[in-house]
Amino acid sequence: MPPVSSDIGSARTMLAAIFCGTAIGLALIITFFGGAKGNYEDAAALGAQTTSVFAKVGRHPIHCQDGRDAAACIKGARDRKATSSVLWLGNSQLHAVNQFHQGEITATPLLFDSLVPRGLDLVTFSQPNASLQEHYVLFEYLRRQLPVRVLILPVVFDDFREEGLRDEVAALARDDPTAVGLSETEIGSRLVTDARSAPKDQETAGIAQTMQEQAERWLNGWLEAHSSLWQTRPAIRGEIFISLYKLRNTLFGIKATSKRKMIPGRYLANRSALAAILGAAEQNGIRVVLYVAPLRGGVETPYDTTEYSRFKAEVETLAKQHHATYSNLEALVPNELWGEKEATGLGEEAELDFMHFKAGGHQMLAAKLYLLVRDALTSREVTR
Amino acid sequence: MIFNSVTYILFLILTVCLFWLLPKRPRLWMIFLSSLTFYGFWRPEFLAVMLLSAATDYFVAMRIEASEVLARRRIWLVVSLFVNLGLLFYFKYLLFVVDNAVVVMHFFGVEVQSPVLNIVLPLGISFYTFQTISYTVDVYRKFIRAEQDFILYGCFVTYFPQLVAGPILRAGELLYQLDAKPSFRLDTFVSGLRRILFGLFLKVVLADNISPLVDAGFSQPISALSAIDVLTLAFLFGFQIYFDFAAYSHIAIGSARLMGISFPENFNFPYMASSPREFWRRWHISLSSWIRDYLYLPLLGVKVQDRSVGGLAAASEEYGARGRHPTLVLFATWGIMGFWHGANWTFILWGLYHATFIALYRAVNPWCSRFPYFVRSCGGWIITLPIAMLAWVPFRAKSVGDTLGMYGKLFAPRDYLWLGMRENAYLAAATLLIAFVGTYFFHERGGRWLHQRLGFRFVAETLLMGIITGLVFVFLRPISQFIYFQF
After folding, report:
1. Distance (Å, rounded) from C-alpha A94 to C-alpha A139?
2. What residues in A contact B457, CB-CB < 8 Å?
3. Taking CB atoms and an 8 Å limit, are A17 and B5 in contact across chains?
4. pLDDT tens digit string along B309-359?
5. Which residues numbered 39-98 in B keep a CB inside 8 Å of some CB on A?
6. Which of A24, A216, A219 comes nearest B462 by C-beta?
7. pLDDT digits (tens, 9 = 90+) for A220-256
8. CB nearest to A207's CB, from B185, B474, B478
9. If pLDDT is split at 50, 70 and 90, which confidence band does A358 have?
10. What are phi and psi of B420, to 5 degrees?
11. How far apart, in whole angstroms, are the C-alpha atoms of residue A127 and residue A228?
């Protein structure tokens, strides 16, 4: 049946709508998200007022993130001919400086300088929103690469709400000796299974190990080389998710002071990972300094009081069981050394930052941890 | 090759251009070779399996047609079934049978070791074997003539838009379209383009971003999930699998339409069904229609239909009360349909779950008919929706034990008093449900109004396409296969 003229008119209208819509859609993306930066994970976790600082000694970093730069930190420690290392694992509190000014440094280089006279090297690894499960993988990997004598491990209630291994940490869990070490515990076996089943490249996971994967990589490479907009797609995706996150917070009135509830399944998994870390450290003669991370005071904590108290009690019990040096440093950093962060909602003022302090807070943390490391090396008793 | 990739877009552009430029014979060769290329981009070594299935049925159909002796025709039909079901059994079910046999032997005290079998499931085998079986059976039933031209027949079996995950087509629906070059129609072409864009949106923007929430929820130990969590996960996975599979169908239908070829619809807002029976008129229509004509109605002993529409339910309304042992046939059919999806007891449980609710519906339907239409419709939807969503639990759970554990939560009152997942999961489930219902009502009511007003339609379409193409541009990447690829 030949097409009716109204059908053709309607079809032309729809075709025009597709082309106009496409042009408008791409124009809007360029307008609103064209300036998206690559590291949107840090942008989401830290906000504009907080700066990430990863310290170096000489040419080598002493503060790294995860699998992507672990080799550099390990090489540095070996080049320094470290015979005893202190390994410090944590979240963004370790690498973030609130209200950063040029020349300011984090706790890592300060602690490093304090430990050198005692014949100790220091290497720090931290990621935004790190979980204890990720710390477990990193610990098992790094203790096989470095002569770790002391492990410093902060515990943060927020970190016990996290789940899963980011790609850069999962890669370390696939390392055979690390996998063997992890497999000695149930939680570790699960992490190894998850890491092995996770795709090595998320972007082409659906076509992994097929001929199409090669074609797709080549085409993507060509598009990235010829289109800056195509290149910026990952950052645009990140910006979209951050915008959705802020929209959610605005609609439901979620702020930095809103109460964060425990997520039972994740809490149990992270607690198991903590116990596994402490057990492995004890078995291998590694002293552990376990501390409750500094938290902003003077305002109500963003956690359910009962759950938070239970969390601290359980951490202390685990520390005792495994002869770790335990300390509650919640109140270590005074209020004036805390800053603000970008609002978590749309179009709002900055809000209180409960996790990231100013450079002065890093000085206090480094000083306190030096004392705790010293105590850990001289005593196996739990101290406060 | 998967649809949600730059490779496929390039491949499609090239294929469609060649389709309209080439004369008939080269065009058929182009379709056949491009379909083989499409499949070979996954694993070229499994082309041989597909061609074996196709070649067997090509040959068998001609033998069936050549013979008027019923016994001989039946023998050839059995040969076809033996080869196709044999391939399916070897690649899909052998490991399952062996593992269960070992369990049974251990139960009876016979100590045997599980043999190590490294069998990879060829992509789309469940779909193309069903398609070739339907061809042979239709020739046997004298619905169609056996195709003499192997290339044309090969195009029917391997036609790339529907090769890997359907819609499952009958030879009578597709062969004549491939044989005759359609005249180019702009409205069909534009409609195809829209379907592809919409399908990509459902897959790369919606389904792929729901997936992490579902994975996180199902990876939790059952003890860490509350009753609300089980319901939320059921809804989330229900939407994920719907968007994922409907996306594939949209892109398949759209890709075919770019070549002027028409496929039947495979989905019709399934979550707006007001009864379990109606659900199966709206979900994976081509599969349930196939099951109706090649399994359900023959088992009932009644006359079959011959089209990929209507679904299983259309038959059960007419024939459910008649035929031999209707309830037994219902459960057997659904058990097999579940088993078709995967070699695991969870899929069989999924099938039997649906059969149970269809049987219950048959029992209560006469009593419900005394209520006004509005009450039946809304009340039916409120009851059917959670039933349909909860059916997906065995589909996604790791084991029958996990499935029963999750269902058990729904019957524990205390498990309704706490929540075990991150807030985003509940928010996403609620948002998706509201958006889905809103889209349905807009499609049913607002769509007609817009259709009569070209100006408004242009503005609305421009806005919609702007959002869809913008988001598809940002999110297009092959981070996951389509869920139904595993079947």
Report:
1. 16
2. 10, 13-14, 17
3. no
4. 666 655 555 555 556 678 889 999 999 999 998 899 999 999 999 999 999
5. 40-44
6. A24
7. 999 999 998 898 898 899 888 988 988 898 888 888 7
8. B478
9. very high
10. -120, 5
11. 28
Long-range contact list for A76-85, CB < 8 A, 24+ apart? A76/A123, A77/A121, A77/A123, A77/A146, A80/A121, A82/A121, A82/A146, A82/A147, A83/A119, A83/A147, A84/A119, A84/A120, A84/A121, A84/A147, A84/A149, A85/A120, A85/A121, A85/A122, A85/A123, A85/A146, A85/A147, A85/A148, A85/A149, A85/A150
Strands A351-357 and A338-341: antiparallel
β-strand pairing of A287-292 with A148-155: parallel
Q: Is B141 on the interface with A (CB under 8 A)?
A: no
What contacts B409, CB < 8 A, 6 or more positions away? Answer: B222, B225, B226, B227, B229, B230, B415
Which residue in the list B106, B284, B325, B341 is annotated as catalytic?
Answer: B341
d(CA B164, CA B1): 9
- Residue B322 sits at the chain A interface (C-beta within 8 Å): no
Q: Is A88 helix (H, G, I), strand (E, B) or coil?
A: strand
Which residues in chain A are contacts of B190 at CB distance < 8 A?
Answer: 11, 14-15, 18
Q: Which of residues 7-26 of B touch A (CB under 8 A)?
A: 7, 10
Token duo for residue B357 = 């609710």
Question: How many CB atoms neighbour CB B100 within 10 A?
Answer: 12
Residue from the list B5, B190, B418 with its beta carbon closest to the beta carbon of A14? B190
Q: Is A146 helix (H, G, I), strand (E, B) or coil?
A: coil
Question: Cis omega before residue B394 (within 30°)?
Answer: no
A215, two tokens: 């074609």
- B43: phi then psi, degrees, rounded to nearest 5: -145, 105
B341 is an active site residue: yes
Q: Which phi and psi angles does B172 have, rounded to 5°? A: -65, -20
